[in-house]
Amino acid sequence: MFNAEKVKDDIVQWIRGYFDKNGRDCSAVVGISGGKDSSIVAALCVQALGKDRVYGVLMPQGIQHDIDVSRDLVAYLGIKHCVINIKDQVESLLDSVKNEGLEPNRQAAINTAPRLRMTILYAVSAIVNGRVANTSNLSEAWIGYSTKFGDGAGDFSPLSHLTVTELKALGREIGLPLKFVDKIPEDGLSGKTDEDNFGFTYNVLDRYIREGVCEEKSIREKIDRLHQINLHKINPMPGYNPA
């Protein structure tokens, strides 16, 4: 049984321990998307470090229809923040690739924005003397729903061993308004939800991760296939050892 109260307290202590060892005077820098992951990470960092040591970075790509949720989150937590629109940077990078005779495909276009966002987070982190929070969760990482060196990067990762189901329980335990906890995740590109893209729900995925139970064979096989082909995102980078 998932004990949200204990996990919350443990994560808060873990964040404090990380900063005691890796930056006593540093702030947590969190990319604020308006989704549950970044909202919960930011809230946990505030509890661990105090609001004056948490810095939010909002990074819309052009017009973001739900940017107000991100603004509401930083206002609710009372943290300092900035807004950096990445639209021009993304277009400039892809145009530079086109100028070399290479036509960006869908994968290149999708992954460029998260990697630029991570570049921005590290730039801001250097300016404000920070450490970048990774906001990934276990459910998305399990099936590779992340960008290597993009939203899969960071200096410390409070939620990487928790499923989405567990995250929601954690968000409620923290006391976040439900609009931050229950906001339906979407890809921000096609107008589809994450679950639309998966072809199965987070509840199904989380149960399979934790209990090994999935009644539909086709979904079970799909999850296994996605997990296998995306292990390169989870495992440490392999390196040749001549010894």
Tag the structure with descriptive keywords.
243 residues, alpha/beta, single chain, 12 helices, 4 strands, 4-stranded parallel sheet, Rossmann fold
At the first level of CATH, what is the class? Alpha Beta
Question: What coarse outline follows from CA principal-axis ratios?
Answer: globular
Q: Which blocks of ≥5 consecutive residues have pLDDT under 50?
A: none
**Percent helix range:** 40-55%
How far is the first residue's CA from the last residue's CA?
Answer: 45 Å
Strand order of the largest sheet: 3-2-1-4
Percent of sequence in beta strands? 5-15%
- Named at the architecture level, the CATH assignment is 3-Layer(aba) Sandwich
Backbone CA Rg: 18 Å
* Helix/strand class: alpha/beta
CATH topology: Rossmann fold
Number of helices: 12
Report the sheet with the most strands, covering strand number, pairing sense and barrel closure: 4 strands, parallel
Q: SSE order in H/E notation?
A: HEHEHEHHEHHHHHHH
Please indicate the count of domains: 1
Secondary structure elements and their pairing?
Elements: H1 4-22, E1 27-31, H2 36-49, E2 54-58, H3 67-77, E3 80-83, H4 87-99, H5 106-128, E4 130-132, H6 138-142, H7 164-174, H8 178-181, H9 194-198, H10 202-211, H11 217-229, H12 231-234
Parallel strand pairs: 1-2, 1-4, 2-3
Would you write up a description of this structure?
With 243 residues, the protein is α/β, with parallel strands linked by helices. The protein has a single domain (4-184), classed as Rossmann fold (3-Layer(aba) Sandwich), CATH 3.40.50.620. Helix content is 54%, strand content 7%. It has helices at residues 4-22, 36-49, 67-77, 87-99, 106-128, 138-142, 164-174, 178-181, 194-198, 202-211, 217-229, 231-234, and strands at residues 27-31, 54-58, 80-83, 130-132. Helix 3 (67-77) links the parallel strand 2 (54-58) and strand 3 (80-83). The model has no long low-confidence stretch (mean pLDDT 95).
